[in-house]
Amino acid sequence: PPLLRAQLPALGRLLCFPQAFVGLSKATTWYQYGFAQPQGPKPNILVSGHEIRQFARFLAERLGVPAGLGGPDPPPPPPDQDYILVFTRTRNRLILNEAQLLLELAREFQMKTLTVSLEEEEEEEGEEGGPGGTRPFADVVRLVSRASMLVSMHGAQLITALFLPRGATVVELFPYAVNPDHYTPYKTLATLPGMDLRYVAWRNTRPEDTVTHPDRPWDQGGIGHLDRAEQERIVQSREVPRHLCCRNPEWLFRIYQDTRVDVASLIRTIRRTVPGRPGPTPGRPQGAVSLYPSKVREARCQGSARGDAGARLTVSWQMPWNLRYLKVKEVKYEVWLQEQGENTYVPHLLTLQNHTFTDNIKPSTTYLVWIRCIFNKSLSGPFADVLVCST
């Protein structure tokens, strides 16, 4: 039960913690799922692909998957060992012409196609983990970590894209009336600096290639619990409007549809992003990635009040250690200020390594300060450890 202030005197001597973390840190969150506003990328993403790949390598090692994820990549497999991995589903959100899809992908890209599933099923007769069957998660990670392309309907299984090798392609399929621009957790992941993945979204635009399930329970996309007019409106709708998580009936109705993929359209869509063979960029050594700035060093901040004149916050830091070794045309520093307890950030782009902030700085207030270096306008380094400063 909660501890009330009136009970504190009876507890004896108390120990005060000046800083504490309750639950999981949100510093590695890149997406918000629409509990207060329609879902989308976080406005201020603190994590990069470098940290994601470091975590993927840690998890893979604990699962017993060979090293190579996130660090120096293993040598590329011979061309005859390249493959495309397709996530298969058997309960909902089905690809109705999966066999045709596998055949045409193999023919177009001249490589094997394999299927894998994360669904939990009762063990059936035959070889455990056979083609299309359920595999132990470590086996799924092993397959993903060597795939040249990952293909899947929109769904949580696409989080495994964080195990893909650099240069691989993520292909996300969306059912009819579901706009890919409105649901981008995996696009956001794939395009984080340092992930080095190519991302493709394909959307079914043909209602005749869709099988709906209006009679299922509401949490599986059924709409029988709605009044007749609302059911007809949803069936006739051509696009799910923006909505909050997580019980919007039109969203559930559409996302649990089954889809017959127009394979020719899908291949054209992939080819716009992947003109050649999927996998590591041709002519680019496996493991060769863009150089990003490291963390700024010796970051400090100091706050002070100025009576009726308000307050100021002075922040300083030293340049990243690798800056002196790189030929960089333009260097800037991004400083984010957040009033403790608030959800919004104020970003500032600076050219110097120190700055005194006075605008909108409040006296007797605690601020959280993040600093990172940016090379050539687009190559962002990781944030230094957060600073806690009081005015």
TrEMBL record:
E.C. numbers: 2.4.1.312
Biological or metabolic pathway of the protein: Protein modification; protein glycosylation
Gene Ontology CC, one term: endoplasmic reticulum membrane
Membrane topology recorded in Swiss-Prot or TrEMBL: Single-pass type II membrane protein
Biological process, per Gene Ontology: protein O-linked glycosylation via mannose
The UniProt record lists the keyword Glycoprotein: yes
Domain of life: Eukaryota
PROSITE patterns, alphabetized: FN3 (PS50853)
GO molecular function: protein O-acetylglucosaminyltransferase activity
Record carries keyword Signal: no
Pfam families on file: Glyco_transf_61
Domain (Fibronectin type-III): residue spans on this chain: 292-391
InterPro entries registered for this protein in UniProt: FN3_dom, FN3_sf, Glyco_transf_61_cat, Glycosyltransferase_61, Ig-like_fold
Catalytic reactions of this protein: 3-O-(alpha-D-mannosyl)-L-threonyl-[protein] + UDP-N-acetyl-alpha-D-glucosamine = 3-O-(N-acetyl-beta-D-glucosaminyl-(1->4)-alpha-D-mannosyl)-L-threonyl-[protein] + UDP + H(+)
Entry keywords, A to Z: Endoplasmic reticulum, Glycoprotein, Glycosyltransferase, Membrane, Signal-anchor, Transferase, Transmembrane, Transmembrane helix
Subcellular location: Endoplasmic reticulum membrane
Function: O-linked mannose beta-1,4-N-acetylglucosaminyltransferase that transfers UDP-N-acetyl-D-glucosamine to the 4-position of the mannose to generate N-acetyl-D-glucosamine-beta-1,4-O-D-mannosylprotein. Involved in the biosynthesis of the phosphorylated O-mannosyl trisaccharide (N-acetylgalactosamine-beta-3-N-acetylglucosamine-beta-4-(phosphate-6-)mannose), a carbohydrate structure present in alpha-dystroglycan (DAG1), which is required for binding laminin G-like domain-containing extracellular proteins with high affinity.
Homology family: Belongs to the glycosyltransferase 61 family.
Protein name per its UniProtKB record: Protein O-linked-mannose beta-1,4-N-acetylglucosaminyltransferase 2
Organism: Dipodomys ordii (Ord's kangaroo rat)
